[in-house]
Amino acid sequence: MTKTWSILRLAMAALILAAVLAEFRNAISTGPAEGSSTATILVNFFSYFTIESNLFALAALVAGAVWALTRRTREPEWIAVLFAAATTFMAITGIVYNLLLRGLALATTPWANEVLHLIGPLFIVVDLFFAPPHRRLPWRAVAAVIAFPIVWVIYTLIRGEYVVSPLTGDGWWYPYPFLNPHLQDGYLVVSFYVAGIAATFTLVAWGVVSIGRRRDTTPADQPIVDAVS
After folding, report:
1. DSSP structure string for 50-100
2. How many CA atoms lie within 13 A of 63 on its CB side?
3. If we measure between CA atoms, which residue out of 171, 159, 173, 183 comes closest to residue 34?
4. 133: Cα separation from own chain's centroid
5. In this structure, how many other beta carbons lie within 10 angstroms of the beta carbon of residue 93?
6. Torsion angle (degrees, nearest 10) of CA 196, 202, 208, 213
7. Residue 178: CB partners within 8 Å, gap ≥ 6?
8. Which of 210, 50, 215 is nearest to 120 (CA)?
9. Which of 57, 66, 97, 103 has the most CB within a 10 Å radius?
10. Tens digit of pLDDT for each residue in 62-100?
C-alpha cells in the first residue's frame, strides 16, 4: 500500500508541476502595462496563494513518496508538518476558489486551473484520509501551519499598494478581489474577510492535525514493513 500511494503521490506531483508551468507560461505571455514590468509579473505569479499552496503540495508529495520508497523507518516530523501545511493550504484554496472565485473571468489555462483549484486539493484531502498515516504531530504544529498564511496576508496587504498592475496599469495590485480595499470599500471590509479566512485556516489546520493524530497509532521508530510491497 505504501508503494502504491508513493507512486500516486509522484504522479500527482508531476501533474501539479505541469499545471504550475502551464499557468506560468500563460502569465508571462502578456506584456506588462505601462509603468509595470516583467519582473512584477514574475513576483505577482508567485504571490498567488494558489501557486504557493500547490508548491507546498508538490514538495510534500515528492518528499513523502521518496522517503517511503527509499527508507524503512517512519517519516521525519518535518515531512509530516509539510503534509499538514500542504493539506490545509490546498483545502482552503479549493474552498475559497470554488465558493468565491469560480464565477470570475480569469486569464487561466482551463485544465491547469482545474488541477490547481480542484483536482490537487481533492487528491491531497483524500491522501489525508486514506494514504498510510503520517507521523503523529504535537498540537503546536497547528501554529506552525498557520504561520505562513499570516505572513502571506501581511505581505500581500503591504505590497499591494506599491505595485503597478501589469494588466491594467492601476497603481495597486492584489491577487484576490476580497483582499483589495479598492474593490471592497476600504480595509474594514477586507479585515472581515481576513478574520474569516484566518479562522478557517486555524480550524482546518486543527482538523488536519487531529485526523493525523487519530490515524497514527504506530510507534515513531517502528519500520514501515510494507514500504517495498
Report:
1. HHHHHHHHHHHHHHHHHHHHH-SSPPPHHHHHHHHHHHHHHHHHHHHIIII
2. 19
3. 171
4. 20
5. 26
6. -150
7. 100, 184, 190, 193
8. 50
9. 57
10. 999 999 999 877 889 999 999 999 999 999 999 888 887
